[in-house]
Amino acid sequence: MSKVLCLGELLIDFVPTENGVQLKDVPQFKKAAGGAPANVSAAIAKLGGNSSMIGKVGADPFGEFLIETLTDNGVSVDYLLSTTEAKTALAFVSLQKNGERDFMFYREPSADMLLEKEDLKPEWFEEALIYHFGSVSLIEGPVKEATVQGIELAKQSQTIISFDPNIRLPLWKVPELAKKEIMKQIPHVHILKISEEELLFLTNHPNEKEASHSLFKGSVKLILVTKGEKGCTYYTHETSGNVEGIPVQPLDTTGAGDAFVGGLLFQLSQQMTKLEDLDELIVNRELLSDILRFANVCGAITTTKRGAIAALPTKTEVLSLK
């Protein structure tokens, strides 16, 4: 079973116990483990895959809770560090009636931002098939340098590089800086997962196909445009296709995109053993569509429960709907 490395933020989501209430009016919150890369690592492990989380948490009760939660879900925390220099990040969430979210973050700085490039070891990447990261860890150092170091170590070991920008503009000083830093890293990755809104933000192009193809730079082989309940569209250099979503009644969309990525990377880790296998897989449209259908179901199931990691499905649950 091939290993997937996920690097980036771990935090506590305080999720409201009722929908349709503005953040200032939420009467009660429920604590939940979160952070996009952490969610992805948990999604892979909960499906039965082999995932390791690279990051840093505070040496505090919330950091302990995150470590315990990942461990309980089967994620390896051997590469997860603790620090007394900052506390674990917090995010307070409000939910609209349809489960969409608003966030308020407390992370200036937080422990996850203090991961350093020297913390990363080349052998971690030599033993892995996939390295996955997001854009929150690209906002500022030292974790920005650690994230880029991960890319370099992945290149050296011929590890597949997966990138989900998962853009959180309130965390960036200005939107243009987010666009600049994300676009800088795209040519270094093999798989890019991006939402419709993020695609428009990065390219300023209203035509999805043309916008997507404008991102085929450098090493990019596969672009996945996610569309919530409508499923996703995939693009390769030669082909494209749509994979329908699964109709559910959403309660909380927190972690749905991460569950999609987790489902995708889990399936890839089962189907491949080396970077070259990705070229063969993406030209097999039937197999690629089947993998993405699995990922769509993972995302859909996650929206039916509150929180992110707590809502992630098992492989049995996914196959029962797929």
Automatic annotation (TrEMBL):
GO terms for molecular function: ATP binding; kinase activity. Residues 1-314 form the Carbohydrate kinase PfkB domain. Keywords: ATP-binding, Kinase, Nucleotide-binding, Transferase. It comes from the Bacteria. Coiled coil: none annotated. It holds the Pfam family PfkB. The keyword Transferase applies. InterPro entries: Carboh/pur_kinase_PfkB_CS (IPR002173), PfkB_Carbo_kinase (IPR050306), PfkB_dom (IPR011611), Ribokinase-like (IPR029056). Belongs to the carbohydrate kinase PfkB family. This is Carbohydrate kinase.
